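Troubleshooting: if your tokenizer reports a length mismatch, compare your output against this known-good record of 197 residues.
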Amino acid sequence: MPTGYTAKLMKDGQTFREFILTCARAFGALIMMRDDPFDAPVPEKFEPSDYHIKALVEAKLELSRLKAMNDDEKNSFGQATKDAEIKRIGEWIARETKENIRLVEMEKQVKAWKPPTPDHEELKKFMLQQIDISKHDIISYTLELKIEIENKPLAAFYIEAVSRAAWNVKYHTEENEKEIERTNGRNLWIKQLRDSI
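Known-good structure output:
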């Protein structure tokens, strides 16, 4: 029975060069092509992904924007960030509370259910166990909202944003360098493969 790698060879025939380039998709530089159609040509050269370059530009812009803020803008930023966090956590608590209510209602029904045979007792235990492990711990998040967010000074939100933006600049710079290095390695691998056939 043919595999994805041997189907064309078995049906239509292939040159050694075509077959080795098809099989090479499962290895090294061409691993990124393993899910591509087998008739997709193997490129002569790969280009690095531009994901980290784009993210780096955004991170630098954000860092510059934050650093350019005056004291009033920093306070406004802190207040807006604080308000957004309080809203986000409040929405999360409401959603989790609603889900917990559904679980408690189902728990009551499961507890009231009389299994038809002793063999069904394990099913009832399992259902209750699943409900129990699915319940949300809302108390800790409510405390986080009250203590951590509501009492956090506005300046802390600004400082965290600057720190996060600086981290993003460093991270995307390093990851872009790694992507270029990986791409150079893939290009060398494919060149060596082509030179050998």
